[in-house]
Amino acid sequence: MDGETCLRQAYDAIFHGDFESAIFWFQQAIAMEPENAAYHYKGSVTCARSGKLALAMTYALKAVELNPNEISYQLNLRTLMARQKIIEARALLSLPVPDLEKSLQLLKEAAQFDPLSAEARLLLGILYRMQQDYRSALESIRDALLLEPQHEEAKRLLHEVRGERRRLLKQQYSQYKPKRNR
Questions:
Q1: What domains can be seen in the chain, in order of their start residue?
Q2: What is the model's pLDDT at position 170?
Q3: What confidence tier does 171 reach under pLDDT thresholds 50, 70, 90?
Q4: What is the pTM of this model?
Q5: Rounded to whole angstroms, how far apart are CA atoms 52 and 74?
Q6: CA angle 47, 49, 52 (to 5 degrees)
Q7: Quick one: which of 130, 131, 135, 124 has its CA closest to 162?
Q8: Residue 61's closest CA among 82, 37, 84, 85?
Q9: d(C-alpha 152, C-alpha 147), whole Å
Q10: What distance in Å separates the CA atoms of residue 138 and residue 157, rounded to the nearest whole number?
């Protein structure tokens, strides 16, 4: 058995919805041909789809290391790095005392790694809202909607943040009473 045979077995397993077997077969292909960047890349994609982000990152890093000029390998790695940053930010936000600053930094990095991540943009919008930075919140949520126009949560948040911003502005300006010249 060679790497290509293992690869065919992996694709057959994917076709049948058996992602655990597919990962096993990608691992076999990689063990037989550890210098084959394509095997690492394909294994990375399958692991990511199966929720095995740590293994996906390992394979993606190796694929880029073996073939640094392949754009698809670089994009895959950047996407995985963005997902990792989002996971870290979510963990920090779920703490009893959320770390907003670190989460904000991680989500900005995620958006840089993967400019097409609507999730990173939406979470940035939520964080900005928590900080009452409504202008940035609206911008981030609009960006998320540009990336995923049918995203219902983003639509709802956009409406809510607009209302909050309107109320805040109304409150600020209702307290301002200029003196009249007589």
A1: 3-69 (1.25.40.10), 80-174 (1.25.40.10)
A2: 82
A3: confident
A4: 0.83
A5: 19
A6: 40
A7: 135
A8: 37
A9: 13
A10: 9
How buried is residue 166: exposed, middle or buried, by Cβ count under 10 Å (0-12/13-18/19+)?
exposed
Summarised one tens digit per residue, pLDDT across range 16-37 is 999 999 999 999 999 999 999 9
Amino acid at 25: W
Mean pLDDT, the chain, rounded, equals: 92
Distance CA(159)–CA(146), nearest Å, equals: 15
User: What tens digit of pLDDT does each residue of 97-152 get?
Assistant: 999 999 999 999 999 999 999 999 999 999 999 999 999 999 999 999 999 999 99
Token pair listed for 31? 């063990």
Distance CA 46, CA 22 (A): 8
φ/ψ (deg, to 5) at 49: -65, -25
